Amino acid sequence: MEYERIIRWCEQMAPVAIIMKQIEQLPAWPSISAQDEICRRLHKATVAYPLSKRWTKSLLKLMEQKITQTMEGKDIFADDNIQVDLFSDDLIEQIVRLHSCQLDEDDTSFVTYHSMYDSSVNIRMRVLRLHNQVGCAIWEAGIMLGELFCRIPSAFRGKKVLELGSGVGITGLLLGRALPAADRCGTVIVTDFHDVVVDNMRYNLDLNRSAGQAGERTAGASAPQKQSEVNNNESTDFISSASSSCSSSCSSDSSSIGETLLICDQVDWSTVNGAYFEKYDADICFAADCTYSEDINVHLVAAFKMFLSARGALQRKKQKNDSGVESVLTACDAAGAIAESAAGVATAAVVTLVHTCQDLKQVFDVFATRSIPFVLIACTRRNPATLQHFLDTVAATEGLRLMDVTALGRRHLPAGTGGDETFYYFQNADAIQLYCICLVGET
């Protein structure tokens, strides 16, 4: 069990200091047998989907240092003055390989994320350092948002969901893979702007297109090493080369995962218009860790407003077609009846009601029962000034209202960080903010 947890953290390329701490807790560490076991298991888990060479080099270097430190002050000579072996042959081989191998500029590698909600679900993603694209890396807020969605599955049952700034696609893949079968989304649309990011995202959707087995691929993607080859390969080399060519991506813009259709699309927030959002007619829109630039903030907020306006207009059109006249929605809550002035627009009373919710699922219900669209965005406080600029931009945009629902979202997630039941992604959980944005009308 201890080895399995260590390998799972390695597959997720957790910080090496955290993994080393787990390794040092092994009863047999730093024996030769323990070193061999780690090398053997790591090879088996990653031979088809290699880890980052830079990350692996950091881990092995730390292991080498810790083993040496463990023996300091001890008698390292056996009888006849023969030095006791400190390092296993397998570990030495990997250290030599790393010192001799060339580190590619993009350092293409794979991360396997193990869902906290459903431990049987593993999401594999290719990550790139190519051109320093932020969209080719995994960000904590995307993981947190995906795990959060998995804990309110009924809010997504049969829905069409749109994500802006999807990056490697982890949040959309969790929606497609980890939700219970009865609560699967109908469609998940993942989007981004840069060509390299979009191609890599298509690749990852194809990589995970099978609900039963992560990593099953179509002919459009370069095939990993077969499991039979992995099992028959006695080498413990886990420093391999991964394909970095984004041209080996999925040949289609959509992939089916179980009952969920995943669509990959390219969109530029600076030029997108309402017609784009009307085309998809998504029920829910969300984004994660997209507020890292003031220029981008302006375009992102404008895109949010376009989505909300387009969705609201479609809601009003549907209601007019259903009833023949513009209807006034009526919904009930614990305090009594609340009337909205028009579909798609929240009144001050609805905003007040959101602030009385006990968790995020209730927030979804408030908007869903009133046919009012909203956007959910998760932001990590890396640069306080940039995040504040985003908040100020929303506040300065006519017709938009932002509500902080961070505390409501956290109530759905496991408490604590870094232990057996949570993964390192949530060590920054306290720095992740969750906001809900909607259109507001006159009281």
Structure description:
By secondary structure, this protein is of the alpha/beta class. The protein folds into two domains: 2-100, no CATH class; 109-439, 3-Layer(aba) Sandwich (Rossmann fold), CATH 3.40.50.150. The chain contains 15 helices and twelve strands. The strands form three sheets. It has an eight-stranded mixed β-sheet, with helices on both faces. Strands 1-2 form a two-stranded antiparallel sheet. Helix 1 (2-11) crosses helix 3, helix 4 packs across helix 5 (89-100) and helix 6 packs parallel to helix 7. It is elongated, with a radius of gyration of 25 Å. The model is unreliable at 76-83, 211-234, 244-251, 325-341 and 417-422 (pLDDT under 50).
Any key phrases for this structure?
443 residues; alpha/beta; Rossmann fold; 2 domains; 12 strands; 39% helix; elongated
Layout: helices, strands, pairs:
Layout: H1 2-11, H2 16-24, H3 32-46, H4 53-71, H5 89-100, E1 109-114, E2 122-127, H6 140-150, E3 160-164, H7 170-177, E4 187-192, H8 195-207, H9 227-232, E5 254-257, E6 260-266, H10 274-280, E7 284-288, H11 294-323, E8 330-333, E9 336-339, H12 348-354, H13 360-368, E10 375-380, H14 384-396, E11 400-404, H15 406-410, E12 432-439
Parallel strand pairs: 3-4, 3-7, 4-6, 7-10
Antiparallel strand pairs: 1-2, 5-6, 8-9, 10-12, 11-12
Helix pairs in contact: 1-2, 1-3, 2-4, 4-5, 6-7, 10-11, 11-14
